[in-house]
Amino acid sequence: MSGIVPARVRPVATLSWLQWIKKNLVTPWYNALLTLLSLALIVGALRGIISWVFVTADWTPVAESLKLFAVGQYPIGEIWRVGVILAMVSFLMGLSWGAWGGTVRTFAVALGAGFIFLALIPIDLYPGNEDSLDLLLRLGFLLNPALIVGGFLLGRLPAIKSRLILILWLLSFVLTIVLLLGLGGSEVLPRVESGLWGGLLLTFLLALVGIVASFPIGVLLALGRQSSLPVLRIFCTLFIEMVRGVPLVTILFMFSIILPLFLPPEIRIDRVLRAMMAMTFFAAAYMAENVRGGLQAISKGQYEAAKAVGLNGFQTMALIVLPQALRAVIPAIVGQFIALFMDTTLAIIVGLVELLAVAKAVLNSNVQWLLLDKEVYLFVAVVFWIFTYSMSYASRRLERALGVGER
Amino acid sequence: MRQQSLPRIFYRRGVPLWRDVVVLQWVAQILSAILVIGFLIFFISNVLSAANARGLGLGYGFLQQAAGFPLPESVLPYDPSRSFGYAFLIGLLHTLRVSVVGIVLTTVVGIIVALARLSTNWLVTKIASTYIEIIRNVPLAVQLFFWYFAVFQQLPSVQESIELPGPIYISQRGLYMIWAEPTETFGLWMVFVATGIILSGILHRVLSRYQIHTGKTTYPVATALVVLVLLPAAGWFLVGANPLAKTVPEFGRFNFVGGLTLTPEFAALLTGLVIYTGAFIAEVVRAGLLAVHKGQFEAARALGLTALQVLRLVVFPQALRVIIPPLISQYLNLTKNSSLALLIGYPDLFFVGKTTINQAGRAVPVFVLVMACYLVISLFTSGFMNIYNRRVRLVER
Predict the structure, then answer these.
(1) Which of B141, B357, B375 shows the shortest C-beta gap to A356?
(2) Is there a single domain that holds both residue B151 and residue B186?
(3) How far apart are the C-alpha atoms of A233 and A230, rounded to whole Å?
(4) Which of A226, A343, B37, B247 has the greatest CB tally within 10 Å of its CB?
(5) CATH assignment of the domain containing A347
(6) Mean pLDDT (chain A, rounded)
(7) What burial class does residue B387 get, using C-beta atoms within 10 Å of its C-beta: 0-12 exposed, 13-18 middle, 19+ buried?
(8) The pTM is what?
(9) Is the ipTM of this complex over 0.90?
(10) Which domain holds residue A312?
(11) Is residue B154 part of a domain?
């Protein structure tokens, strides 16, 4: 059998740049017209934007409130805790990159580049303070890329197992909360009330807690919805559909106003925690639908093979079905995290001071800034855009690397 | 048979109860039901005791009391002496108004952007994808704040309002535009319009069936269109006086009088929702059009169909099948996102609900009502769209 002809790929036509312009911009005649119109639009918009950004706009409210935008009212003496958390995340990101390779690389590189950008940004980071603090902060930012590289080198050692990294990630999550909250009565880590958390810190925290806590609930709900037990299935389906049928603001509001009525008067839950519970509640329903998508993608043969090998129902789920299903839905979960990250802005309705609320507060804090809404809200939009765009870009790379949708 | 050391009651068909699948499943179901119902009872009893302690019932009787709060705008005549129930109804109407108008406009925006994204012109494609990538990655709440506080609130004052052809006047107080107002003969004219729509639908169906069965050209689309235009046009002249009268905004003593008024809150909410959802719909439409295999175009052209026929008969029916399910969820998202109206002070369902809670303090009943309204809207929309979806779905042999 030597007659197999190797498959050949159709040669790609290479165009010279003149041909390219002709093909994509000029012919037929209406294309040329569209090109002209688009050019006019682009030039006009760019000119307007550039002259506004560099000449007309007044960026003082943003430049003078960078700390508020970053961490809200978090006491300035305790900000080092946020630095420790960032260092931890950088190191773990490097470690994961070293151990798992290419798929995490985009995230790690983006993170490192972000820190280098922050370290070199030509703005006074501590307005009204000595320059030494500013320098210290910049050095702190520069430490993170070094930690990523260090983690990367360490992660390549064969002794570092995937399971260890996962455990470290979970530990870092718990440690983050402990560090931020502090311990009551402690000298080194005095308690910082959650009411003082704010800005980007709170935005990230709400989204992270929401996605991490909703994960196990979502998996259970998805399994319940697929279950053969009618009572369980009805409860899970009802929960999922009801939560998905109402806006997030109503759920946030429910947890902020109705939950205290539902509980006996002795139990008082902190406002930030209530918002986190609402985010979790909301995210769990969507997570369940994502996981269900993964579960449905598992072929029947997998169940039958597991049964044939002698696994019981629980083992089949835990060892055969869930690992495959969850791997298939990783991109969807990243997408959900991005959506949740953006949805945290709604916490402004229940009085939390996340990024958007900081913007509003900054505008109201100084009479001279009253008409600078454009600058401040655009700044917030750009901050969100940078995070969500880089996350969705990385997630697209991840999707390609996992090969989801190609099988 | 295995030796049974326990009394017979612990076994069913020789299997101990704690290993019997059927028994275990029943136990699991009963336990979960007890757990869920127990939680509900716990919550409800707490609510009842809290409500009793404050002297507030859980009934809906308060809906008939006077609301006592003003609404910034209203589609129906409203003043604070009207009841809570009436205010609530207005909130619901406001939500429906912004959702319906928004859905129509955002579909148009989405389709235009999707077509631009698929254009052969490189620049147009780039502009469309820039729009999509910017809008989809910035939270809607930030965009709404931007539209309301940075754009609509900073427009010139009424005296110096921007005039656009139409005439349309744009100022801090909102948007005033020329509009058509129904007169007494409007009802009669609507009869003509309705007849035209129904008749053209029937004609289209009958004629296209006839064409399919006999192979004779019957021009179903053209005939239906002619009927659709002719009947209302004939009605316009037959009913006597014009059924619609032009109303133009004119500057009175302090503000514009006449024409259609859109408050800045409504305009900002609508702009934000339309532009935000449009970016998502553009991606949905693009994916749908790309899902139609290239061979389908080529095969249809090879059969001799015209370009328009290819789109109408081959591409759209197949693309719609892919587009409709995600489109439904985008429409629902728009409706649910309209609850962000609270942020900028447009009195929608959620706004009125929250104000009622502040005013009357009956959080639980008001809340159940608000959530029920959103659920009903969601179920109704998805039900309606699912019926449509079933009609266009691929009928497999």
Answers:
(1) B141
(2) no
(3) 5
(4) A343
(5) 1.10.3720.10
(6) 85
(7) exposed
(8) 0.86
(9) no
(10) 198-365
(11) yes
